[in-house]
Amino acid sequence: MDLGLTGKRALVLSSSRGLGRGIAESLAAEGANVVLTARSEDKLKAAADAINARGKGRASYIAADLAADVPGVHAKAVEALGGPIDILISNTGGPPAGTALSVKPEAWTPQFQAMVLPVFTLAGLVLPDMQKNGFGRIVIVASSGVIQPIPNLVMSNALRSSILGWAKTLSAEVAKDGITVNMILPGRIETDRTGELDEANAKRLGKTKDEVAAASVAQIPAGRYGEVREFGDVACFLASERAGYVTGSMIRVDGGATRSV
Questions:
Q1: How far apart are CA 220 and CA 214, in angstroms?
Q2: Signal peptide position in this chain (predicted)?
Q3: What is the SS3 assignment for 144?
């Protein structure tokens, strides 16, 4: 199947590693040109070099703190891609683990500014060109916690749910312009972040990391953690021309772990 991604211009946030990098790799493999972003230039260069070594789509990168300068990142991405952004992959880092009773009131605002506000702001910058061109894809990486709250991740559950309400509203407003807005919800995907969460839960529960991971796997019908490549390929389809009639949706990539219908 030709996904129609050859030559498309994509900005992929938080993409030096993990899910963001996986999405960038899938897009580039289908011929899209991608700009990676993160704060670590060394990791970004390594990721971009790996993508470019495989050929087809090309990768460049911007080392920056997105929350500190969203307009600057957008302008640099347009320059690097040689034109307006066709595909925005909104992927932001997760907040610290914690329970609803343990998180202090003053902790909420900085996390909102770091992982939610940049998503809203950047969409506002890319949408005018998408509307003008009659094509656009916004794919937001969230979490299965927006459907089934995850214990000890209250900040992620709450803040990502605010993005969910915004994205569903936006999707209805721009669908007529050939723009789709979807959320992709990872379950337990094998990444550094997943390992960090397993460590945090192990400490909280007085267990080993391996015990926590085994308990998680036991709750997943697929019987394993997902692979980054599997997640990246689903996001790649949502960003493609072939997914033009999919919008306002939440796509789960969780091995069947989320129990709700």
A1: 10
A2: none
A3: helix
Task: Take residue 28 and report the two structure tokens written for it.
Answer: 């580039």
Q: Tell me, what's the pLDDT at 103?
A: 96
User: Which residues does residue 209 pair with via DSSP β-bridges, in sequence order?
Assistant: none
Are 153 and 192 in contact, with CB atoms under 8 Å apart? no
Token pair 């009639």 in the structure block, residue: 245
Q: Which pLDDT does position 195 carry in this prediction? A: 87
pLDDT digits over 196-236, tens only?
A: 888 888 988 899 999 999 999 999 999 999 999 999 999 99
Which residues, at least 6 apart from 211, have a Cβ–Cβ distance to it below 8 Å? 202
Structural contact between residues 38 and 15, judged by C-beta atoms closer than 8 angstroms = yes
Q: Tens of pLDDT along 25-75?
A: 999 999 999 999 999 999 999 999 999 999 899 999 999 999 999 999 999
State how far the Cα of 3 lies from the Cα of 240, in Å rounded to an integer.
5
DSSP state of 13: S
Cα–Cα distance list, 39 to 9, 73, 195 (Å): 21, 12, 20
- Angstrom CA distances, 125 to 77, 121, 241, stand at 12, 7, 21
186 neighbors 226 (Cβ within 8 angstroms): yes
Residues 59-117 have pLDDT tens digits of 999 999 999 999 999 999 999 999 999 999 999 988 998 999 999 999 999 999 999 99
Q: Which domains does the chain have, with CATH numbers?
A: 9-187+230-253 (3.40.50.720), 189-225 (no CATH)
